[in-house]
Structures are given as C-alpha cells and as structure tokens.
Design a protein that fits this description.
The protein is α/β, with parallel strands linked by helices. About 40% of the residues lie in helices and about 15% in strands. A 5-stranded parallel sheet has the order 4-3-2-1-5, with helices on both faces. Helix 7 links the parallel strand 3 and strand 4. The chain is globular and about 45 Å long.
C-alpha cells in the first residue's frame, strides 16, 4: 500500500485538521494503519519517507514488524553541503524548471520515466499544500533501543550523502540493521531504477508471510 502524505501531490483529498507537528504526522500514520486493521506493519520508505518510517519505528516499535529504509536522508548522517546548495533554489522558490534541472543533475542524466519527471515537476510547482514536517534525527540512545528488524538500502552514485558512511553509521546505531548497497542508481532514481535489485532486496527484507506493508515514500509511483 503506497500512502500519499497529507498535502502532497497524489490522489488524497486532505480534510480536517492539518498536520502541524511530528506528533501529528505519526498519529496520522498510525490512524492509516488503524483504518486498515493492521496492528503490526512493515514500513518501507524512501528519502523523506524513510525519515517518517524510522521515526514511527522508534516511537512505536511494537507496531512495526519490519523496516526498510531506501537511501534514508538525515536518519544516520547529514546531507552533503553540495547537495543542499543545489537543492536550495528548489526549496526556496520551487518551479517545474528548477525541479527538472535538479533531478537531471542528481541522477547524472539518467533516462527517467518522463511521466514521473512531469509529476515531480508539477509537484514542485504546486505542492505540497501544507508545511512539510520533518522528524528530527533519532538520538543514539533512541536508536539503540529500537529492535525492529531493519534493512537500509543505499544508492551507490547518489549525491545526497556518502553511502559507505551511512552504512557504517546505520550498522553502529541499530543492532538489528542490515545495510545493502545496490550496484547502480542515485538517490532520485530510486525506487524506479534499478527496480529489479530493489525488488529483490525488498522481498528478502520483508520475507515470506510478512505483515501488511505501508510504503511511506511520497515520491513512489
């Protein structure tokens, strides 16, 4: 199940009170699981979605059976200065043209699905309609207490962070963590490319008879 973040581009229609805090964000995610009748879930998230998934696992580990983090940003290490500098114009004054140029730079000119690129460009120009709530990076103590079975999947050629550094930090922080570095791809080509490798890792991480899977990736299509 791929879940649209409230206020983000997608099929959802936001109603009721807006999400104003991390507590609101995690309460919303829990309410999604409740509506599905899922008392225990497998969470998979990419980038910002990985931040949400990890925050949920740390906050309510009894509700998260397994955790898959696809190239997680700011979960274990910070982002590279060069990446943040390139992303700044898109964050400060997002336009479709700036989003396209940023994606081309980060993916190193990879051949991306044109419909997905169009969606991302329109999303930058017109969404989100609500403030993006960013969970803080969990402390080493919080991560040390988290016993959720966790798999971290890393893109080898991304510009957002050093995958080797993330892998080392994740293994050190989470006792049950397994880090897998793909043979191809960048931060923003995931999860579409290399989809075959991502699928294999996901199946292996979730295993046979896994609980209901909630995908917290707002960019996943």
């Amino acid at each position: 199940l791929a879940v649209d973040i409230i206020g983000d581009v997608g099929r959802s229609v936001a109603g009721g009170d807006p999400v104003r805090s991390v507590d609101d964000l995690l309460e919303w995610l829990g309410s999604v699981a409740d509506a599905l009748g899922a008392t225990r879930c497998a969470l998979a998230g990419h980038s910002y979605g990985a931040m949400i998934a990890l925050a949920a696992a740390v906050r309510t580990p009894e509700r998260v059976g397994r955790l898959v983090l696809l190239d997680p940003t700011s979960c274990f290490v910070g982002m590279r200065f060069g990446y943040l500098l390139r992303a700044l114009p898109v964050l400060v004054r997002p336009t479709a043209a700036r989003e396209r140029a940023f994606l081309e730079w980060e993916t190193r000119g990879a051949q991306l699905d044109p419909d997905w690129v169009t969606l991302m460009a329109l999303g930058a120009a017109h969404f989100p309609t609500a403030k993006t709530i960013v969970p803080r990076r969990p402390s080493s103590e919080e991560l040390g207490r988290c016993t959720v079975d966790t798999t971290v999947v890393l893109a080898p050629f991304g510009r957002v962070h050093d995958p080797d550094e993330v892998a080392r930090a994740a293994r050190k922080a989470l006792p049950s963590c397994r880090a897998v570095t793909l043979t191809a791809g960048t931060h923003h080509t995931l999860p579409m490319y290399p989809s075959d490798e991502v699928d294999v890792v996901l199946r292996d991480a979730l295993g046979a008879g896994a609980p209901v899977e909630l995908d917290c990736d707002p960019d996943h299509q």
